[in-house]
């Protein structure tokens, strides 16, 4: 499920089954030499979020991406975001990111860090294969949390 009006209606009617929130964290590089890498990482993360949502429709809600720039204080941003998300009805929260800095922060929920894989020159079958492989790596982390 995605954070839109139609899916939110479904969530509000069936929230006892939709207990997990995926929060994409997007680093927006404004330095011209890093913009392409940043855009590629964003592309990867958003496509992976969509893939995960499709695989777990009815269990997972994907939040809109939260974007931040390098000059922002990630610790403060993470604390505020985490505090707000802790008030939500979701039992399980996963922050999905390609920025390893988030792994050192204390947040309400679990940080899932993945290295960005450039997708721009891949055909759809290869992209899907990569997303399957990434999900296989994430699945034990998701199921471990769901058992709690």
From TrEMBL:
<dbReference type="Pfam" id="PF10673">
    <property type="entry name" value="DUF2487"/>
</dbReference>
<protein>
    <submittedName>
        <fullName>DUF2487 family protein</fullName>
    </submittedName>
</protein>
<dbReference type="InterPro" id="IPR019615">
    <property type="entry name" value="DUF2487"/>
</dbReference>
